[in-house]
Amino acid sequence: MQELGQNPGQIRGRVLSVASEAVPLIKTGGLADVVGALPGALARVGWDMRVLLPAYRSLRSKLDAMDEVWFESGLFGGDARVFAGDVAGMQVLLLDAPHLYDREGGPYTGPGGDWFDNARRFAALSWVAAQIARTGLGDWKPDILHAHDWQAGFAPAYLAYGGALGVRSVLTIHNIAFQGWAPAQALTDLRLPFEQFYPGALEYYGGLSSLKAGLVTADRITTVSPNYAAELMRPEFGMGLQGVIAQRADVVSGILNGVDTAVWSPEAEPIPYSARALKGKAANRAALCAEFGLEVPGPLAILVSRLTDQKGIDLLEATIPDFIAGGGGLAVLGSGDPALEAAVRRLEARFPGRVSVRIGYDEALSHRLFAGGDAVLVPSRFEPCGLTQMYGLAYGTVPVVSAVGGLADTVIHASPAALTAGVATGIVFHPVDAVAFGHALRGLLHLYAHKSQWAQVQKNAMKQPVGWEASAAAYAELYEGLRA
Ligand code: ADP
Ligand code: GLC
């Protein structure tokens, strides 16, 4: 295999990261942003990270330019190969197992919903991750196996049950709502040891959960904000796994995500602006209003999101009419649950010129929304970290967020005291219901009307660091501690 790394003298350690998505290769949500950003952020603090992903159909064209570095015959029903190479500046390992991944559709779903064999598909990914962690690839031998979410949950388990050979494991929870459930009968098929099927180990409500398997076997557990780490130990947020996580509290920590500030910078937009020169934001707003057919006397709120229950989208219909009456407007970019798509469409039909909706996924358009919007709405019912409130901070697009998970960790509410102290960066509401959200939107109208306070909040927001530096240092410290 070719030597893929940097000068080994400068490397503090090596990490095999395993996940189902990574920007720029494949993305359905923030998981991909984070998995794709970590290698670069960690390289800057001396950690050499390679990312193992499935070679989905859309990625198979990359294989030609990569080197075959690993082969296993009969991996959960077919032959599998791993290819290594540099893809868009990231050292990537693609697991090519056509019987599992060469299909038309998304990473988790096909035309008829979830793939019937998802448990196997991601068990295979995890199995290979554990094998590579143990044996290394040529002279590249990882110190740490870092698994992300349920798709990689079995990786620490395979490593622990098969003998870790000095490799330590980390499991990061990006979203506890997805737990990788499989029936108990799948145990043997998934190459899991029968004697580990008991409540303290693999058994989960009579079946199996890849996420639980990872939680009970990983050396360290992290999640993507300190607040979510604490929430996960409570029944309202733990979604059945709160006890398992609480039992391992001594190895659980929260490390906030960062955002790629080279990509998410108002100074890098076509109409650039900065905290010092906020005028450019007005030009972006005018362009956005023209593009969306909006005329909004008060604050223009934006929402860029998966349209799902998690995101509190159902609160909009009860609250936006009053916000419109108060002078506000709303531009939405999102897709997801058809009922929620219909709900935002109804608002658009009811308030032409004040509410405008684009159903779909569009990265470039999302930049124009952040650059042109006055405020970004994130009324999530739960939010492990959340990235869009951080884009909002960077763009002076004041975040209006529920006080959950990483939202509570990243936004400082514009209370009278915080305004006086000059530290407010947004509006935070609790509990997550239409009454509190409606109140927050009235607060937004009010704050926007006080121009000097508004400009101060925008500037405070833009000054808040949202890059990867602090998080990368925290991961490096975690890895370092594990090796010691
Ligand atoms: P989650 O991963 O739960 O969806 P995050 O806030 O962590 O939430 O990450 C969502 C990511 O996906 C962000 O980068 C956001 O900008 C992006 N995103 C979501 N919906 C869209 C869309 N319709 N168009 C463009 N980007 C989107
Ligand atoms: C999940 C969470 C989101 C988080 C992202 C990246 O998709 O829903 O809050 O920001 O993972 O960690």
Can you describe this structure?
This protein is α/β, with parallel strands linked by helices and 484 residues long. The chain folds into two domains: 267 residues, 3-Layer(aba) Sandwich (Rossmann fold); 197 residues, Glycogen Phosphorylase B (Rossmann fold, 3-Layer(aba) Sandwich). 38% of the residues lie in helices and 20% in strands. The protein contains 19 helices and 20 strands. α3 packs across α4. It is globular and about 65 Å long. It starts with 12 loop residues before the first strand and ends with a helix. The N terminus is likely disordered.
**Strand share of the residues?**
15-25%
What do we call the CATH homologous superfamily of the largest domain?
A: Glycogen Phosphorylase B
Summing up helix and strand content along with how strands pair, one would put the structural category as alpha/beta
Quaternary form: single chain
What is the topology, as strand order, of the major beta sheet? 3-4-5-2-1-8-9-13-14
- Level-2 CATH architecture of the largest domain: 3-Layer(aba) Sandwich
What is the number of beta strands?
Answer: 20
In total, how many domains does the architecture comprise?
2
The span between the termini is: 29 Å
Helix content: 25-40%
Largest sheet: 9 strands, mixed
Rounded average pLDDT: 96
Distinct helical segment count: 19
CATH topology of the largest domain: Rossmann fold
Unreliable sequence segments: 1-6
Bound molecules: adenosine-5'-diphosphate, alpha-D-glucopyranose
Question: Topology of this structure?
Answer:
Blueprint: E1 13-18, H1 30-43, E2 47-54, E3 67-72, E4 80-87, E5 90-96, H2 98-101, E6 109-110, E7 113-114, H3 118-135, E8 144-148, H4 154-162, E9 168-173, E10 181-182, H5 186-189, E11 203-204, E12 207-209, H6 210-217, E13 220-223, H7 226-231, H8 235-238, H9 242-247, E14 252-254, H10 279-292, E15 300-307, H11 316-325, E16 329-336, H12 338-350, E17 355-359, H13 363-372, E18 375-378, H14 388-395, E19 398-402, H15 405-410, H16 416-421, E20 427-429, H17 434-449, H18 451-463, H19 469-483
The chain binds adenosine-5'-diphosphate and alpha-D-glucopyranose.
